[in-house]
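Question (not urgent): is this output format expected?
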Amino acid sequence: MQVARHVVCALSGGVDSAVAALLLKRRGYQVTGVFMKNWDSLDEHGVCTADRDCEDAYRVCQILDIPFHQVSYVKEYWNDVFSDFLSEYEKGRTPNPDIVCNKHIKFSCFFHYAVDNLGADAVATGHYARTSLEDEEVFQQKRIKRPEGLFRDRFEVRNAVKLLQAADSFKDQTFFLSQVSQDALRRTLFPLGGLTKDFVKKIAAENRLHHVLQKKESMGICFVGKRNFENFILQAPRTDHPALYRDLLRTSRVHWIAEEPPAALVRDKMMECHFRFRHQMALVPCVLTLNQDGTVWVTAVKAVRALAPGQFAVFYKGDECLGSGKILRLGPSAYILQKGKSKSRVSTEGPSDGPGSGPGLGPTL
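Got this back:
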């Protein structure tokens, strides 16, 4: 008789992760639930939101009759996520801590705890996303040794796992998973990837999970609860002033999920794809230009509003999320370009930016 596969599922105390654990158990897996405490229990108003979420996660495990564990990553979250969050704002940038949290906490700290401490054959989360692997292929990854070194062997590309958008396009969360490592992704199950949010709620209602179904959806940063982060966040007033529109940006070295970097980009030094820099915004057609240091220039086919340094540009090709890079530099705004055109009518001088200011021009920054 074959021993049941052991899957460790991250539980947030919300409905999505609860239903993910339920579906895994229905598939016949040995499921363990783990709640991650990423923030000190008392918020600014003395409310123990983390403790309440932990209790809800524990109750899910009781209902499903699965083991429950709690781990604390308060120190790691502060050092790797929140300190970076504050540092970026001090530099006048617009960070995305959810992407950073998934990279360092959920798919690094939690992933290694599940595999090394709990002996997981695979991990699972309640994210709305899919991969190119079937469940059994995920379990087989345990026996595949990965090459060691600074860069992945390009021959490994043939077996690379792709990150794919969820069936529910509105709830799709690949944007937040765009910095997850290949090693973690190939050992991860996303039980909700093919479901809609409404169907997930229906499953919860039919399986005695009413206590999580009634909770408001998490709107806090990286699921540490709703906190007074508004003091850090500056919202620009809604306006269509041309100074807010740009069609050119440069990223940091891009984290490519499946290929490093895509073969077409290596071959041609340019590649057409789509990108977004906010969750749920419409995908924007663009052209990527690869630099020697692994950074890319992104040229949008049409100027987009409210690009800001510190955000992540997340790239897509069809249903596949290719990866992402942090926005480091912006091209001139539509307002500056309009002023430049006006000046060009009365002056024959060249552009003021000089060489190296755009894709393929001059040395890298």
